[in-house]
Amino acid sequence: MEKHHLTAAELLENATAHAMAAEMLLKQFHQAPEQSFAALSPVITLLYQAFQQLLRAYAQHDHQHVRKIKSIGELLELTPHLPIAPHQQDDLKTLNRLYRQNMGQNFVVWENVQDMHIFCIRTLDLFTGLYDLMPLELEANYRN
Q1: Which residue among 40, 56, 115, 127 is least enclosed by CB atoms within 10 Å?
Q2: Distances 90 to 11, 29, 76, 87, 104 between C-alpha atoms, Å
């Protein structure tokens, strides 16, 4: 069986799918009568995967091959040209930490579910902003 490394464009497609799924879950969460921390854990996982693949695609575009799966922090170091404010970097570190925890355990980062919900929305907005900075070469219209 041959190993296939995803191209930067394929990584971007996957990242977009993960972000869209997270957005859909956030909308459903907002409409749910009972809201809990556990209900947001799939959103955290999807957001983490979306960011990891987005940053990996950008790093791969800049540096060619990024072989090992890297954490969001390591990928940020490989893409220093991205305009990420310090408070946004803190959000990504929090996302990284939450993902690394075994999801479903106690969340001590927020006092209530609404704060975590706001964090997820803010993180999704950051994803959208970074996605909009996509290099021209990775645009689907450019590749066709």
Answers
A1: 115
A2: 24, 24, 12, 5, 22
Q: Is 108 exposed, middle or buried (0-12, 13-18, 19+ CB in 10 A)?
A: exposed
Determine the structural domain holding residue 13 and report its residue range: 8-139
| 2, part of any domain | no
Quote the pLDDT of residue 78: 82
In a domain, 108, yes or no: yes
**Tokens standing for 110?**
């927020």
Give the closest residue to 16 by CA, choosing from 44, 58, 69, 53.
53
Consecutive sets of 10 residues in the chain, 144 residues long: mean pLDDT of each? 76 94 89 75 92 89 71 84 89 86 59 86 93 74 54
Q: How many domains does the chain have?
A: 1
pLDDT of residue 126: 94
CATH of the domain at 23: 1.20.120
For residue 46, which amino acid is it?
L
